[in-house]
């Protein structure tokens, strides 16, 4: 059996504005039906990459294929992809149904077929009764759903979404995240989503491409991005992190001995999550997420132990957040499940299982 043709293939895309390299040799294959998110801080090039696919930005070099066809030089209106923007961009003088039908009309679809498609999409976005309203009579969330329906109407090969929920307040934003994901599942369309919000990326996507300075640093499932960060930038950008500077003292079989301050940690070599594996004597970083700690360690064979003093404690319903200062001057973030019977100022022991930490060789 031959592999199905990917929805989108980017090959060696480069783009600079003057001396600024905004996209630096990005290659990316996106399979059909996948919800992928380009995640990264402001200015990392994610919008430019998305705009290159839809034809609103012109790469300096590289190739873009959609459904196996080279569209690198095709005009934006001839590309079989559609974009949804943060500011909706609905036509104010057209009704909702006319807005949704616009793309189909441009394709020369028959009036009755357009009406059917419009009704079908209003059902999909769960707003069957607003066909005759104008955009200014809709809420922000409703407008964004209509914008989504309008982009889906001509049955594009992929939908590109540039921070589409950025203008919505938090509650509505979370509702729309669920709604978007449900619509993607129901339609089976390829969605390429752009956001700088890691929670949004993690909660919706099958795959996340984390971008930094015009490059994709890791393409992986949300779970792997969080648990197995490939770079220090990713460990820091995605989720809260305790970072320890360490040195590889010895490698024996499938374990490493790290020196961390005055301590020695024996850890599985399999927990090196960067692509490059460190040599003996090399400086590395150890990442421990706040929820990877247990309190009151006792004697356990596997893992590392730390002790410190609780300086602050915040109850957050599902967890208790502790700030713990260690004797060697570190300030740790620790999340544990309630109930927690320790007061501020208490001396505690912390334990982290060796398979719950990540070692990164990119210092
Ligand atoms: N038309 C342009 N002319 C000059 N510089 C540009 C242009 N478009 C984008 N840039 C610059 O390219 C860089 C990447 O911009 P881009 O919009 O792709 O980033 P982003 O990751 O999407 O950020 P944000 O989340 O803030 O939108 C930024 O430094 C931006 O200022």
Mean pLDDT: 92
Question: What do we call the CATH homologous superfamily of the largest domain?
Answer: P-loop containing nucleotide triphosphate hydrolases
CATH topology of the largest domain: Rossmann fold
* Helical percentage: 10-25%
Q: Could you give a short account of the major beta sheet? A: 6 strands, mixed
The overall number of domains is: 2
Total DSSP E strands? 20
Compute the CA-based radius of gyration. Answer: 25 Å
Shape estimate: elongated
* Strand residues, percent: 35-45%
| CATH architecture classification of the largest domain | 3-Layer(aba) Sandwich
Arrangement of strands in the largest sheet: 6-7-8-3-9-10
- Uncertain residue ranges: none
Computed structural class: alpha+beta
Q: What is the ordering of alpha helices and beta strands?
A: EEEHEEEHHHEHEHEEHHEEEEEEEEEE
Q: What small-molecule ligands were found?
A: adenosine-5'-triphosphate
* Contiguous helical run count: 8
Distance between the termini: 43 Å
Protein name: ABC transporter ATP-binding protein
GO molecular function: ATP binding
Pfam families: ABC_tran (PF00005), TOBE_2 (PF08402)
Domain ABC transporter: 8-238
């Amino acid at each position: 059996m031959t592999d199905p043709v990917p929805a989108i293939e980017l090959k060696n895309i480069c783009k600079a504005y003057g001396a600024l390299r905004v996209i630096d040799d990005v290659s990316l294959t996106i399979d059909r039906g996948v919800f992928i998110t380009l995640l990264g801080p402001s200015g990392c090039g994610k919008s430019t990459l998305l705009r290159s696919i839809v034809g609103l930005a012109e790469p300096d070099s590289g190739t873009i294929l959609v459904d196996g066809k080279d569209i690198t030089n095709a005009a934006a209106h001839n590309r079989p992809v559609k974009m949804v923007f943060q500011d909706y961009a609905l036509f104010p003088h057209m009704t909702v149904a006319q807005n949704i039908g616009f793309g189909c009309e441009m394709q020369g679809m028959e009036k009755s077929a357009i009406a059917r498609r419009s009704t079908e999409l209003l059902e999909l976005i769960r707003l069957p009764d607003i066909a005759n309203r104008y955009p200014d009579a809709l809420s922000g969330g409703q407008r964004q759903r209509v914008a989504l329906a309008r982009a889906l109407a001509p049955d594009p090969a992929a939908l590109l979404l540039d921070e589409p929920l950025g203008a919505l307040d938090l509650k509505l934003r979370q509702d729309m995240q669920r709604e978007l994901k449900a619509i993607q599942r129901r339609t089976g369309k390829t969605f390429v989503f752009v956001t700088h919000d890691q929670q949004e990326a993690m909660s919706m996507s099958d795959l996340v491409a984390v971008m930094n300075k015009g490059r994709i640093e890791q393409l992986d499932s949300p779970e792997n991005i969080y648990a197995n960060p490939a770079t220090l930038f990713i460990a820091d950008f995605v989720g809260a992190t305790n970072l320890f500077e360490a040195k590889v003292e010895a490698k024996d079989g499938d374990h490493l001995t790290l020196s961390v301050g005055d301590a020695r940690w024996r850890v599985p070599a399999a927990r090196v999550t960067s692509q490059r594996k460190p040599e003996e004597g090399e400086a590395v970083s150890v990442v421990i997420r706040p929820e990877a700690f247990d309190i009151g360690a006792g004697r356990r064979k596997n893992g590392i132990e730390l002790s410190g003093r609780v300086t602050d404690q915040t109850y957050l319903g599902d967890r208790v957040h502790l700030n713990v200062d260690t004797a060697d001057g570190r300030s740790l973030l620790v999340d544990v499940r309630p109930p927690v019977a320790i007061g501020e100022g208490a001396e505690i022991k912390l334990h982290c299982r060796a398979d719950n930490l990540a070692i990164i060789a990119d210092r």
